[in-house]
């Protein structure tokens, strides 16, 4: 899926390739041995009106509904700029890929927060900068790579199988008296194949928080729902992370049913010596950590299975009437 230098391998028609190379300024990666991501169609978002759309929301609305995997992805290429909008991606918008010009070039921003009267759901910008909740991972499976995410309280939240990879996470300075929690994963049932995985990312303080002299407490996450599941692995956790690592939502709620894990992190905030001692907290090894990575374009959470015809017959209509 990715080349040795980390670039995404794409397969698309020649007319789409010409547009992609023209707008992105880079040649389409050619890979051998398969593994490329198929792009069926693409549109350009540019605020200056030179693309197909001037807002990301309009481009999302134009994407086809209920597509299937073998058709390929609908790519939305967002040209550099600051896009002040709140984006809702409906569950019917499947196999949708949003690509920007790069970190600090394509920015989606908003400033809704619960403190200002917005609900948790409506405070999300989808990505990437907000004063409260930034990214609501709401449905299906999601993958974010080489992104910047900024926020304060629970700014990455929701209940899907989602992986953040090679990205930067910046907890900002919250309002007076508040602490920061990066994630609030919302797995409500032990049988749900969902969770948040943060792999090979950098969690550090932006200038506003850094200037606060370490008086603001910042945590990796807290349990929004009973079976909350979040894993940090192979990431750089800077000094700003509280030694306990994780925060409670309300007293003992979910502390014995959640699943929080860390693997092979580094940085001043990565030590597990003084981490929480909840039943649901774990320091895991490489053998188990691989379950929380992206493999063959699929999030391989524990509990996910590819089954054969012999087992699949158990889930046909005849067995439910």
In short:
With 321 residues, the chain is mainly beta.
Report on the structure:
The chain is mainly beta and 321 residues long. The protein contains five helices and 22 strands. The chain has helices spanning 14-24, 56-62, 207-210, 286-289, 309-312; strands at 10-11, 37-45, 73-78, 81-84, 96-100, 106-109, 135-137, 141-145, 148-151, 153-158, 161-165, 168-171, 180-185, 195-199, 202-203, 218-221, 229-233, 236-237, 259-263, 281-283, 294-295, 298-299. The strands form six sheets. The chain has a six-stranded parallel sheet with strand order 8-11-14-17-19-20, with no helix packed on it. Strands 1-2-3-5 form a four-stranded parallel sheet, sandwiched between helices. The chain starts with 9 loop residues before the first strand and ends in a 9-residue tail after the last helix.
Strands, total number: 22
What's the mean pLDDT score?
A: 79
Give the strand order, joined by hyphens, for the main sheet: 8-11-14-17-19-20
Rounded to the nearest angstrom, the radius of gyration is: 20 Å
Helix content: under 10%
- What is the CA–CA distance across the termini? 42 Å
| Total helical elements | 5
SSE order in H/E notation? EHEHEEEEEEEEEEEEEHEEEEEHEEH
Strand proportion: 25-35%
Low-confidence stretches: 1-6, 118-134, 315-321
Observed structural traits:
321 residues; mainly beta; 6-stranded parallel β-sheet; 5 helices; 22 strands; disordered C terminus
